[in-house]
Amino acid sequence: MKRNVELVVISDVHLGTYGCKAKELLRYLNSIQPKTLILNGDIIDIWQFKKSYFPKPHLKVIKKILSFATKSTDVYYITGNHDEMFRKFTDFELGKLKVCNKICLEMDQKKAWIFHGDVFDASVQHSKWIAKLGGKGYDFLIVINNVVNWFLEKMGKEKYSFSKKIKNNVKKAVKYISDFELTASELAIDNHYDYVVCGHIHQPQIREVTNKKGSCTYLNSGDWIENLSALEYDHKEWKIFYYDDHKDLLQDEDVEEFPDIDNSELMKMVTNFSK
């Protein structure tokens, strides 16, 4: 039974990398029927794209997104830094799929400003850790972490996250996240937005931010590498969906076939975008 959801935001999927949890994302997407789906950047990781590594579950995620767009779901692909090559297709539309750099939505008489967030890398005090964790270093770290967690599970112990440990304990990382959230929120308040929705920093969050000029709600959809999280808006309320909290309730389901594009053609398309 699919859940009807008014709006869903996912980001930082990083399809085409070893750390991407495409199977889990596919199970989540198969469990919902959103009116609007917002892909808030870094969905396909063009930076680290390898033609030799783009497994079927990754292609199925793309097919599922396309199947949404050919039916009743409005799909917005907001470009990020890892898929910045798509920015040359800004304002491109195919059925209900639209490529853009940011969007502004009216939601129950409130205004939402939605963008990836990499634009703040130049204005927030930039640290080397974010570049490393966002690139090959991060991908390698996740591969090692997956091996360690496999052994921990076999021994009946809880999983451990290397990158979360780094983010929570390295002062520069903590400050980067704090500055990112504050910068986004202050700009939203200055421009009279009620919500500001970002991705980029792989840190799911919903919190109120208030200053002398006003207040707004800052939201971040997290990622599908470690947190396996999404933002959902329904009945005038925002929630963070965590896959691990619901995985026992989700059922495997075949993706509807997308008749006009087979796997080989999808692979060619992704390869061309990566050039």
UniProtKB/TrEMBL annotation:
The keyword Kinase does not apply. Keywords: Cell inner membrane, Cell membrane, Hydrolase, Manganese, Membrane, Metal-binding. Pfam families: Metallophos. GO terms for molecular function: metal ion binding; UDP-2,3-diacylglucosamine hydrolase activity. GO terms for cellular component: membrane. Its EC number is 3.6.1.54. One of its GO terms (biological process) is lipid A biosynthetic process. InterPro entries: Calcineurin-like_PHP, LpxH-like, Metallo-depent_PP-like. Residues 7-204 form the Calcineurin-like phosphoesterase domain. This is UDP-2,3-diacylglucosamine hydrolase. It comes from Chryseobacterium potabilaquae. The gene is lpxH_2.
